[in-house]
UniProtKB/TrEMBL annotation:
Organism: Drosophila simulans (Fruit fly)
Listed EC numbers: 2.5.1.22
Keywords: Polyamine biosynthesis, Transferase
Name of the molecule in the record: Uncharacterized protein, isoform C
Sequence similarity: Belongs to the spermidine/spermine synthase family.
Catalytic residues (UniProt): 281
Lineage: superkingdom: Eukaryota
GO biological process: spermine biosynthetic process
Membrane-spanning ranges: none
Length: 367
């Protein structure tokens, strides 16, 4: 069950909305057409302002509520909202919406018009998420498979008809059964040679990176993940991408350590332990206008410690963020350029299915 909100907008000749009389004429035409679809339509409230244009609230049986606004700049917006219980058919069909748009467009002689299918609000299953640059994305999620809160974050497994099971952490897309391209791009499969190498993974609680790296016959991989519940959840619901590595936790080839990766990096530094590869599969680059705050401090701490456990010819690999986040990616690269000893980096890109956008990945070595 959810509230259904259908959005329409129409661009009109400015002369048709320039003054009160013209706007009221547009409102009259609109109401006449709406009454064809909603025969018992009543006006609940209207307001006219020279500065802000015309605004009205209408309803049918106090069930379906319609808000209309006519701006003096030549824009008309129309919102239709009603509540849809589970198991009930929508009050307004796709064909009806399309027909309504076309009729109103013709009546207003509109240059352009647009309607959006119902936005579903307040349901138990949240099908809306955002891209890295904060565009709204609607997913074909049909089931909440698992939901719990660990001491560190909210953990959800959602099922998507096209993406399969998908891991969300604090309600943000993390990885789905469809996202092998994410892991392969992060590890630069086919470019990097991991055979016989010693590797450290920071984070990676979904197990996908570890699972794929083990196929490359490394000497040993140690994975440092703080959230036990994430691993238990992915082992049960995402074993398509992680196999049984989160079940076994340890073999001759790998070891999973549950704990704070920063503390273990400090331990490795004290022991003089070095790696051929360090993977930062942790926090995304923050969407901020300056490299300030707790998350940026954490990123700098990870940099500082990771390069101290990297062999001279070693490589640090990590994900960045969506490739449209130009400012934030530049801030991240500026932090890399501040590192001492100096480092150099290359980047790769991949369209990640469950993110529904292109992401940037970094490969960093000592300069």
């Amino acid at each position: 069950m959810a509230a259904q909100t259908i959005l329409f907008d129409f661009t009109l000749d400015k002369d048709k909305t320039a003054d009160e009389e013209a706007r009221l004429q547009v409102a009259k035409i609109l109401r006449n057409e709406l009454e064809q679809l909603f025969p018992q339509l009543e006006l609940a409230y209207s307001m006219e302002s020279p500065e802000n244009g015309y605004f009205a609230v209408l309803h049918e049986n106090k069930d379906t509520v319609i808000t209309c606004r006519i701006f003096q700049h030549g824009l008309l917006t129309l919102n239709v909202e009603y509540f849809l219980p589970d198991g009930k058919e929508p009050s307004i069909s796709f064909d009806t919406m399309r027909t309504m748009e076309l009729i109103l467009r013709q009546k207003f002689d509109s240059d352009r018009s647009k309607y959006l299918p119902p936005i579903k609000r307040g349901g138990y299953i949240d099908i809306y998420m955002t891209s890295s640059d904060e565009r709204i994305i609607e997913y074909d999620i049909d089931k909440v498979v698992f939901e719990a809160r660990s001491p560190f974050q909210k953990i959800q497994i959602m099922h998507s008809k096209t993406l399969g099971n998908m891991l969300l952490l604090d309600e943000l897309q993390n990885i789905a059964e469809s996202d092998l391209i994410y892991t392969e791009t992060l590890m630069c499969r086919g470019v990097e040679n991991y055979e016989g190498k010693e590797i450290c993974i920071l984070g990676g609680g979904d197990g996908a990176l570890l699972y794929e790296l083990l196929k490359e016959n490394p000497k040993h991989v140690v994975m440092l993940e703080i959230d036990e519940l994430v691993m238990q959840t992915c082992n049960k619901y995402l074993n398509v991408i992680c196999g049984d590595v989160l079940e076994k936790r340890k073999s001759d080839q790998y070891e999973i350590i549950v704990g704070d990766c920063v503390e273990y990096l400090k331990k490795f530094i004290a022991e003089g332990r070095k790696f051929d590869y360090v993977f930062g599969d942790l926090t995304d680059i923050p969407i901020t206008d300056a490299p300030e705050g707790e998350t940026w401090d954490f990123i700098r701490t990870i940099f500082e410690h990771s390069f101290k456990v990297l062999k001279p010819d070693g490589k640090y690999l990590t994900h960045g963020n969506g490739s449209t986040c130009k400012v934030q990616l530049r801030l991240f690269e500026e932090q890399l350029n501040l590192l001492r000893p100096k480092v150099k980096f290359t980047t790769t890109k991949a369209f990640v299915p469950s993110f529904m956008e292109e992401w940037l990945f970094y490969q960093v070595t000592f300069a």
